[in-house]
Amino acid sequence: MSSGLNKQVFTFLNKLVKNNNRDWFNENKDQYLLAHDKMIAFSDELLHLMKSHDEIETPTGKKALFRIYRDVRFSKDKSPYKNHFSGSFKRATQHLRGGFYFHIEPGNTLIACGFFQPNKEDLLRIRQEIANDAEPLRALINTPEFKKNFGSLEGDCLKTAPKGFDKEHPDIDLLRNKSYYVTDRFTDEEALSPDFAKVISIKFQSLRPYLDYFSEVLTTDENGLPLV
User: Fold this and answer.
1) Pairing, β 180-186 against β 99-104
2) Confidence of residue 3 (pLDDT cuts 50, 70, 90)
3) Sign of dihedral through CA atoms 90, 12, 202, 211?
4) Sign of the alpha-carbon dihedral angle for 156, 161, 163, 166
5) Is the N end or the C end of the chain the one with fewer CB atoms within 10 Å?
6) Type and span of the H or E element at 38
7) Which residues, other chains included, contact 185 with Cβ-Cβ below 8 Å and sequence gap of 6+?
8) Residue 197 and residue 199: Cα distance in Å, rounded?
9) pLDDT tens string 113-139
């Protein structure tokens, strides 16, 4: 039976927002450890559901979670801790590309999936495919289910055409993207519902055709010959 996201996670995060300093955190380490344990349980549940419809390399829910400690070396915000819990699942083998991200935060819970700031080689290959034939991608992102769950592609875009591509290309809107990912956001009530992990899993599963498209693109050359 699904246990969902325990509300003690939100209780701790709400307190942390008001007390984001090392003294408070150390004095309340037991509350953090309790919330972290609840997040591990939730992540394990989600991972189990994900493995029913995709091949996931991430071995455990605990391994999927990111550290709560912030890297403040290059940030103006010197708060030592993140005000959220988050994690990601990596797809298995060289043939399955793309990743799944979940972000748990009061008032800002979301999921994301796809390709966030891909390396220059992958980005070039994606753009080559779009320039040659953008219709398969457009068909995927224009389905009613995709639009209902995720709206449209997100991320930064170039102001003009990428180097080597015609600024008058009919699919310049897609070519200008620097990332190819989508997000969906949830209310606190939705996030704390008993079946929240199942809801996320179903939404991620709906993106399988999208991920399969990019996986094929990134594992073949412009002539469709295998790269891996």
Assistant:
1) unpaired
2) low
3) negative
4) positive
5) N
6) helix 29-50
7) 108, 109, 110
8) 5
9) 999 999 999 999 999 999 999 999 999
Other Cβ atoms less than 10 A from the Cβ of 227: the count is: 9
Give the burial string for 201-214 (b: 16+ CB within 10 Å, else e): bebbebbeebbebb
Q: Could you tell me where the beta strands, DSSP code E, fall in the chain?
A: 85-90, 99-104, 109-115, 180-186
Phi/psi of residue 86, nearest 5 degrees: -150, 165
Q: What are phi and psi of 137, to 5 degrees?
A: -70, -45
For the chain, what percentages of helix, strand and coil (3-state, to nearest 5) are there?
45, 15, 40
Return the minimum-mean-pLDDT range out of 5-9, 32-36, 49-53, 62-66: 5-9
Quote the CA–CA distance of 156 and 2 in Å, as a whole number.
37
| pLDDT at res. 75 | 85
Q: Provide the residue count of the chain.
A: 228
d(CA 145, CA 122): 27
Backbone angles phi, psi at 43, to 5 degrees: -65, -40
Instruction: Give me the pLDDT at residue 1, please.
Output: 45
87 class by beta-carbon count within 10 Å (0-12 exposed, 13-18 middle, 19+ buried)? buried
- Residue 102 to residue 58: CA distance in whole angstroms: 14
**Angle, CA of 149, 151 and 157, to the nearest 5°:** 140
